[in-house]
């Protein structure tokens, strides 16, 4: 009944506005946000702080709700969190009293999956992120990068259709970050999901995404959407290619020169 | 040579050095006590105190007193903690419960439980009930606040992480809030136990037919200083043992915490 030719978009955000009360006044975190993300697409969202990118993610996660407009996932309006939408937080949010294995099993246990199957699925995703050696370690024994890999395995274990990632590598050093970017793309290639990935790092946005959504602040809105037609896997060769630089420069300009009228 | 002596000094771990110093300090302290007792101070000497302890043991009084005191403190403490933990959870989880309980807890917290003893004695008679009740109160007040603090300070991100993994309110409570507040509860229990112990001994000084406090009170009438010393040492040693037991439980249950 719509003009859509293929499948309906996995994620669809229509006219979303979000207003927070702030010292007796209104702070417009998001205004008139429209966005569609197709099945198995990897979309990165980049923008200055205060542009509402985390708010947008929280709305899709069901942890927050829009003041007006609607957020649809698989055609249905988002109403609270659900296991079909996995979320990965910047602060890892691992349960510190549980081992890596128990953390990964948490969502499965919640869903009432039996012990044997739980263990098997946890094992699969723990080894997918390369933490086999640390399955029985507590989070306090892990480095930041390992913690985030554990959180990724935990999100994957409940088999979500969508992964919502809120600056997951923001707290990591540059070298670890590049490693985890490569590993995330490997994991994503092995287990395709629809991903919305928030970042403040322009390089990260370009190297990971099919599309880069550039947001602007005051009020938070979508400024520009840039297609990234670089091939996967995004090898070092791609990372060092002139095409990558060109795209990075475009995104960079869009992020850092938002006040100037663009020529696009 | 200098290097050799340096390595031997490094060979002793800091914790071992600490233990050696602890022992030396205790031995030195007892020696000082002995010296002062022999030179003008009106103290019993350490051997006299040991003798008094052995004498009380042989008469069966020492065991009786210790059992009476421990029985009171443990029943009061366990009842107090058992009531405090659910109350603290309710206060942390439901605004209504917080609104109802908080003024009473804040009010009674400022009153030393012992100050309620005269009232409690009048209302409950002179049996075991009033003593256990004041200990209960001491333990309850210490634990309830820290349990409540534990619940309200659970990291929001952890709760969100559980919610996005499909957890309902009950699962969030039992599998996130409870473990996350365990460190707070255990700290409250340790404070509560210390407070219960202090309250107990004082309560026994005022009104009891057995117990360490009662024994000391009785000895005071006869100017029996060695027995009073036995009581003081017992109170200290038993308090220390109970505290260490809880500390061991705390380390076992909350070893997952990242300490900086």
Which bin fits the share of residues in helices of chain B?
over 70%
Please tally the β strands of chain B and state the result.
0
Counted by DSSP, the helix tally of chain A is 8
Count of discrete domains of chain B? 1
Net shape of chain A: globular
Our measurement of the CA-to-CA distance between the termini of chain A, rounded to an integer number of angstroms, reads 33 Å
Multimerization status: heterodimer
Largest interface: A-B, 27 and 20 residues
Low-confidence stretches of chain A: 1-5
Question: How many beta-strand elements of chain A?
Answer: 10
Strand order of the largest sheet of chain A: 6-7-8-3-9-10
CATH class of chain B, anyone?
Answer: Mainly Alpha
Question: Which descriptors would you attach to this protein?
Answer:
heterodimer, A: alpha/beta, 8 helices, disordered N terminus, B: 260 residues, mainly alpha, MetI-like fold, 83% helix, flat
SSE topology sketch:
The complex is a heterodimer of chains A (about 260) and B (about 260).
Chain A: E1 11-22, E2 25-37, E3 42-46, H1 53-61, E4 68-73, E5 76-77, E6 85-88, H2 100-110, H3 115-128, H4 144-157, E7 162-166, H5 174-190, E8 194-199, H6 202-208, E9 211-216, E10 221-227, H7 236-239, H8 242-256
Parallel strand pairs in A: 3-8, 3-9, 6-7, 7-8
Antiparallel strand pairs in A: 1-2, 1-4, 4-5, 9-10
Chain B: H1 2-11, H2 14-38, H3 46-58, H4 61-93, H5 95-109, H6 117-124, H7 128-152, H8 156-164, H9 169-206, H10 212-221, H11 225-253
Helix pairs in contact in B: 3-11, 4-5, 4-7, 4-9, 4-10, 6-7, 7-9, 8-9, 9-10, 9-11, 10-11
